[in-house]
Amino acid sequence: MHKLFIIIGAVSGAVSVILGAFGAHALQDTLTATGRMETYETAVKYQMYHSLALILLGIMMAQFDHKFMQFSGYSFLMGIIIFSGSLYLLCATGITKLGAITPIGGIFLIAAWILLAIGVGKSL
């Protein structure tokens, strides 16, 4: 399972770089005109931060083996998809109601960090 989270984190990190470059170059005029550049940058940053967290989690799972570590990994993944994904969609479509979904992703990300702490604590 730990290898899966490392792979997902690496792929997500690569996608984050691709989307960041795409936003900075191909979408820059559109994002600036709609006032969504900051929103897009937030999506890219959070995706990258939590992609790195997934990689670190995968590495840590070799030492700290507990089911909460797996729960943390899945929560990081759901958080990335819902948080960053909803922001990307909001920027691409202009549908502001998508912003209502973003906090759900944030809750998954918060839960992932808490589950990580619990998982390490329980495996000691």
UniProtKB/TrEMBL annotation:
Pfam family, one: DUF423
Entry keyword Electron transport: no
Annotated compartments: Membrane
Keywords for the protein's UniProt record, in alphabetical order: Membrane, Transmembrane, Transmembrane helix
InterPro entries, A to Z: DUF423
Ranges annotated as spanning the membrane: 47-64, 76-95, 101-121
Topology in the lipid bilayer: Multi-pass membrane protein
One cellular component (GO) term of this entry: plasma membrane
Family stated for the protein in its record: Belongs to the UPF0382 family.
Annotated protein name in UniProt: DUF423 domain-containing protein
